[in-house]
Write a structure and sequence with these properties.
Blueprint lengths: L1 E2 L7 E2 L2 E5 L2 E6 L4 E6 L6 E3 L5 H11 L9 E3 L5 H4 L10 E4 H12 L1 H14 L17 E3 L4 E5 L2 E6 L11 E4 L4 E9 L14 H10 L8 E6 L5 H22 L5 H7 L4 H15 L5
Parallel strand pairs: 6-7, 7-8, 8-9, 13-14
Antiparallel strand pairs: 1-2, 2-3, 3-4, 4-5, 5-6, 10-11, 11-12, 12-13
Helix pairs in contact: 3-4, 5-6, 6-8, 7-8
Zinc ion (ZN) binds next to loops.
Length: about 290
């Protein structure tokens, strides 16, 4: 079934076509966006969700687009909601940043660490607690370093870019040059502040400037965030402004030009998230995160 929405491309079932044969699907749990890039060799899936059931749901939903098996997976970063479903997509190769692979390999090698990670997720998201026992950690086997990589799958070129530290130290941005689409992972979230608990608030604005540069050109670029609605260049600009404000508040707090209450009052984000971000900024300024 194909229906049109004003100002948007066709929808195919629950998938939104954000560029030529490039789709995004928004899942209710964590308001997450999953990508599907169609190629002659089969679909390339971006991120694999949080549970075995979630991953199988993606695999079933892909059949609205194609009956070919998955050609490859790309993990945007190591967080559970982007990689816990990995194993269900085998035997497809899985691409990811080297540090993403190392983090997941660490819990393969140390089941106690995996149990601790799952317990943390279960505590925060009781709804999926029962399903986490089935998660098999499965790291990317095709790794990309800080220099990035251009790969070709089924006649389509995909640019995997590490643009700097931000949401984590292993965020990959995926550009589909023949479709004017950029997948940003959780470097950007639309409609909510990003999660900053593993973040690098001082680097994040610079990294986001590099994303903004990918949206330049005569053709509007669709920007698919890790969570929230698909955006455009203006969405990246708004996010950049907020991230710059947070980095600036962190620097002024460290220099004792303002106190914490003033910083929180000036922050564009809710106090709990702003406080966590400022703590990470101070840790960065103290050299604790290097
Ligand atoms: Zn994340």
């Amino acid at each position: 079934m194909v229906e049109m929405e004003a100002g948007m491309r066709a929808r195919t079932g629950g998938w939104q076509e954000v560029g030529e044969r490039v789709f995004a699907r928004r899942y209710r749990f964590l308001d997450q966006e999953i990508g599907a890039i169609l190629t002659a060799a089969g679909p390339v899936v971006i991120d694999t969700r949080s549970t075995v059931g979630h991953a199988r749901e993606v695999l079933a939903d892909l059949r609205e687009l194609t009956h070919q098996p998955v050609a490859a997976v790309i993990d945007t970063h190591h967080h559970f909601d982007h990689t816990y479903g990995n194993h269900e997509f085998r035997p497809a190769p899985i691409w990811g940043h080297l540090r993403c692979a190392q983090r997941i390999q660490h819990v393969v090698d140390d089941p106690a660490a995996h149990a601790a990670n799952r317990a943390e997720v279960a505590e925060e998201y009781p709804r999926i607690a029962d399903e986490l026992a089935d998660v098999v950690p499965d790291p990317p086997d095709r790794t990309v370093g800080d220099e990035g990589a251009d790969i070709e799958i089924g006649g389509r070129r995909l640019e995997l870019r590490w643009l700097g530290r931000g949401h984590t130290d292993n965020d990959l941005v995926i550009r589909v040059p023949d479709a004017s689409v950029v997948f940003t992972g959780d470097l950007l979230e639309n409609g909510a502040p990003p999660w900053t608990g593993d973040g690098y608030p001082l680097d994040w604005p610079v990294t986001t400037e590099a994303i903004l540069a990918l949206t330049l050109g005569p053709v509007p670029v669709a920007v698919v965030p890790g969570h929230g609605a698909v955006g455009d260049r203006a969405f990246v600009e708004r996010s950049l402004a907020e991230l710059r404000t947070m980095a600036d508040l962190g620097r002024r707090l460290e220099a004792q030009e303002i106190d914490l209450a003033e910083a929180l009052a000036a922050a564009p984000w809710p106090a709990d998230i702003a406080r966590e971000t400022l703590e990470r900024a101070l840790a960065q300024l103290n050299g604790d995160l290097d």
